[in-house]
Amino acid sequence: MIPSRVLSITVCSALAIMIAGCSSTADNQASYYQTAETSLQQENQRIFGESTAQQSGAIDLADLIPDENLKTLINNALAGNPSLQQTLLSLKASELGLVSTHADRLPSASASLSTSRSEGSDTEFSLSSSVSWQLDIWSQLADAEQAATKSYQSDVALFRAAQASLVASVMKSWLELVSSYRAIVIEEKRLALLETNEALIIQRFRNGLGTLESLDEAQTSTSKSRSDLAEYKETLASNKRALQLLLGEQQSSIKNYPTEYPDVWLDLSALPQQDLALRPDLQAAYLAIEAADYNASVAYKEMLPSLNLSASLSDSSTSLRDALFVSPVWSLLGQLSAPLFQAGTLKANHEIAKLEVVQSYQSYRETLLNAVNEVQNAIGQEKVLNTQQQHIQKALTSARSNRQQYEQKYRSGLVELSDLISAQQAVFDLEAELDTLQYQQLSNRVDLGLALGLGSSNT
Length: 459
What we know:
Elements: H1 2-48, H2 68-80, H3 82-103, E1 108-116, E2 124-135, H4 140-206, H5 212-247, H6 280-301, E3 306-317, H7 320-325, E4 329-337, H8 345-411, H9 417-451
Antiparallel strand pairs: 1-2, 2-3, 3-4
């Protein structure tokens, strides 16, 4: 009676401690979750206001540029990019790790068969089998499984983030090809005109109508343009190699790309949902908080008593059949154990686990702040680039009109050739600047889509 009563008291005391500990852990958990969700809602409200769209349907990042050739390259990149494939293999390994964690909650069984023989005696067969099971009285194993599940879900979200980042990189590299090609076209037009002007200056110089300084200036401008053109062509080749690297290809399959900028659709009011919670990196950070909380609970329950059941079956005989099937000896054991002294190791592990919860929360805050910064920067860039394009377009219109006037005056002998060349150069400079601004705006729209959480449906 006395041992049974002592055992009951011990179990009840442990249960009371467990309830108090679980309550404390749950309070901390709810506090961090609530704080994280409140911070997210506040940032959504601050950025998007009350006009958050709630339309049905999903939009992929690739849908921003409706080009079939580009979508083919994106699919090739998702299937062949080595870095993404490494992440996928790590994710599959993490998924298999869930099987091991789940198995800890189930009974384990083992069996062995051995033979022995000594001089003057028959061979003896010995059979033993055992089944053991740790009763999850404190839900410690369940918490460990939940922690592993949350960690795996976080890995899944990070993989989706890697997919979205790769898609954005392919799209921006695609736009860079167009930008490089257009830079070549503009420079070729400039060079053709400079060569024409140089030939005219040489002819005038031979006729005694020009100066050596004008000839030197013309040759300098022509040589500079040839140098720039060579650089632009190498930039185009380099961009092709960079895109090839993203695709994970040894030989380039890039054959067709547009020579004009495609439309990059982006209408915030038409997006299915404006919510930073769509970002997979934020989802991963939130799941990491959950995983850390479960791990802290596991670390606390390591200090509580554990109950194990084990059953064994054994026999030995000179006959293998008798050893297997005739009158085996069985035993059943229930064992209650509790840690008494481990020099503060378990308590320290629990404190470390609680610090990791706080660390996960701070990591979530950092991810949220970065997300807000990326969205605000992209929105700000969209506005300023649009304004810059309007001003440069007006300047280009004026420069073209000015060039026409200088051409007419030069034919009438009212201005020098150098003045006409300066007017022509101004047009080419503004065309190149406007083209660069257009590329920057389209590339920024891809960044904005990525910052808003648009991803890839190819999972």
